[in-house]
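<derive_structure_tokens>
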Amino acid sequence: MQAAPKALRLHIGLFGRRNVGKSSILNAITRQNVSIVSDVAGTTTDPVEKPMELLPLGPVLFGVMLDHALSQQVFVAIAVLYVVAIATVAEARRRTRAAHAA
């Protein structure tokens, strides 16, 4: 799993304003203390990334994106999720047709 290059992983971004719990969500999802958590706004000052295996998706890269890092990355993340959703729906339709044909 760690051998999967960053470019081949599905990127899942956590976006939001300061001090709304992005780092806490990342820590909960990964069940690790990946990101520092504090009641003080602006504690996480750098983007945080955590590669992991997320079934049934496979290798993914979770990232906490800060306000100043949102511009281009948010559009890329939305585009990737859209493509994955379309591929998932297409695969479900293919399996349904195959099951009905059998």
